[in-house]
Amino acid sequence: MADYTVIAAAGRSIERMLNAAFGEDEPVDGSKTRAVLVRTSDFEPNAVSTSIGSPALSIFFYRVDFNKTMRAAWSSIGSQEGRGRLAVDLHFLITPWADNSEFELRIIGKAMQCLETTPILSGPLLHPSAGWGPNESIQVVMEEITTEAVMRTFDSLPTDYRLSVPYLARIARIDSRQAQPDTPVTTLVTGARPGVGA
């Protein structure tokens, strides 16, 4: 069952699947497009060429939030089991990087085709670093947010706005370690002396 590494493993799963899709059907003729997980500092103008490169598709996780539908249900199960179970949604943007607009559109089109063709990641499609359970999976869907919200995200990044598509990976579950077995409660009374006040 997944633990705190589930968020990173979900990102690696998406990255690996997109790279496999680019390997099977290269969107930019004569090149090798790669998908890469990025962080905010990778958008720095002097870092883009080395951290992202071209042609490429960046995968930028900009928000992790609890899943409003499953939070109560998993909390209830967790309290009965004596362990934490937190269901989270992972919000991310995919952004193409290439020498011209046609190549960028081909890259984003191929990525969207891949994510639409395989919207459920389970079993061997999940990166093994999280120790997934046999019944665990991640669903990847386009997220319904406004262009203005995407542009506001770019306002906080050290780069100008670029064509990007918002996606949501759900439901990742962060499980705490196995609960400790119940131990008997020992009561100690201090300050009492036998035979006094009897």
Shape, please? elongated
Count the E strands: 6
Largest sheet: 6 strands, mixed
Low-confidence parts, pLDDT < 50 over ≥5 residues? none
Based on CA atoms alone, the radius of gyration comes out at 23 Å
Element layout with pairings:
Layout: H1 6-24, E1 34-38, H2 48-51, E2 56-66, H3 71-81, E3 85-97, H4 101-117, E4 120-122, E5 137-142, H5 147-155, E6 165-175
Parallel strand pairs: 1-2
Antiparallel strand pairs: 2-3, 3-6, 4-5, 5-6
Helix pairs in contact: 1-4
Polypeptide structure, described:
By secondary structure, the chain is α+β, with helices and mostly antiparallel strands. It has one domain. 30% of the residues lie in helices and 25% in strands. The protein is built from 5 helices and 6 strands. It has helices at residues 6-24, 48-51, 71-81, 101-117, 147-155, and strands at residues 34-38, 56-66, 85-97, 120-122, 137-142, 165-175. Strands 1-2-3-6-5-4 form a 6-stranded mixed sheet. Helix 1 (6-24) packs across helix 4 (101-117). It is elongated and about 95 Å long. The model has no long low-confidence stretch (mean pLDDT 85).
Give the tags:
198 residues, six-stranded mixed sheet, 5 helices, 6 strands, elongated
Task: Describe this structure in a few short sentences.
The protein is an alpha+beta fold and 198 residues long.
